[in-house]
Design goal:
Elements (H helix, E strand, L loop, with lengths): L1 H12 L5 H13 L2 E3 L5 E4 L5 H8 L23 E2 L2 H6 L1 H11 L1 H11 L7 E9 L5 E4 L5 E8 L12 E3 L5 E4 L6 E5 L7 E3 L8 E9 L18
Antiparallel strand pairs: 1-2, 2-9, 3-4, 4-11, 5-10, 6-9, 6-11, 7-8, 7-10
Helix pairs in contact: 2-5, 2-6
Length: 233
């Protein structure tokens, strides 16, 4: 009941930053991004969203789910995962603003040009991830139905500075970690060598992030998509 009241209040309050604000801020962050080619091509971005948008996302009334002692793959907890899907877009203005921004042709064209991927015919998928102590992810590449991956870090706890995504070489040896800072991101185009994960280490509070993907029409869980009937043109 409390969650329903909080959700209604958040929806009534609206958001401080519009989809247009998100578009303009994200385009600038792409232009100022830094590329690394080792061990595979990936980019680090700063200032991905307006600061008000970050605050609105962090205020979403979704409780961090329990791991029940199980981790290693996100799909092990499919029943508790949250998305900027059709229902949450309708209920929470910030979900709508971010989804509309990443559906915008100006953003998708800029992504294609800057990162060398083809989004035509793909679908937007945005996951709101809340990771707690005990969470870890085995190295994986995202190769398959994902044609773009963006990991946007959101939580502001200073102790989270070393909780970035772990990066592995082709033999799955850990070679580094992406910088974790509020409103920063790691981007890559999935390939057979884009191994990434999260080594188990202490997490104080909740490690909050957005996982933004464009996926092909073969994606089966259509209910996760922001616009399940609107592929990128």
């Amino acid at each position: 009941m409390r969650d329903n009241v909080a959700a209604k209040r958040a929806a009534e309050q609206g958001v401080k930053s519009s989809a247009e604000d998100v578009v303009q801020t994200f385009l600038k962050s792409i232009d100022n991004g830094q590329r690394s080619d080792r061990p595979y091509r990936h980019w680090s971005l700063r200032g991905c969203f307006p600061s008000d948008t970050v605050d609105d996302i962090l205020a979403l009334p979704f409780e961090a789910p329990s791991l029940d002692g199980v981790s290693g793959k996100r799909e092990l907890h499919n029943n508790t995962r949250k998305y900027f899907d059709m229902g949450n877009r309708e209920q929470f203005p910030v979900c709508e603003a971010v989804a509309q921004a990443f559906q915008d042709p100006r953003v998708t064209r800029h992504i294609e040009k800057a990162f060398g991927t083809n989004l035509k015919g793909t679908y937007l998928r945005i996951e709101f991830a809340q990771d707690i102590d005990g969470f870890w992810l085995e190295p994986h590449s995202d190769l398959g139905v994902k044609v773009f991956t963006m990991l946007v870090y959101l939580s502001k706890d200073p102790s989270h500075h070393d909780l970035g995504t772990d990066i592995y070489d082709a033999n799955k040896n850990r070679v580094g970690c992406s910088p974790f800072a509020p409103n920063a991101a790691m981007i890559f185009v999935p390939a057979d060598n884009t191994f990434h994960g999260f080594e188990k280490r202490p997490i104080k509070g909740v490690r909050t992030s957005l996982i933004i993907n464009y996926v092909t029409d073969e994606w089966r869980a259509r209910e996760q998509l922001s616009f399940p009937k609107q592929p990128i043109a």
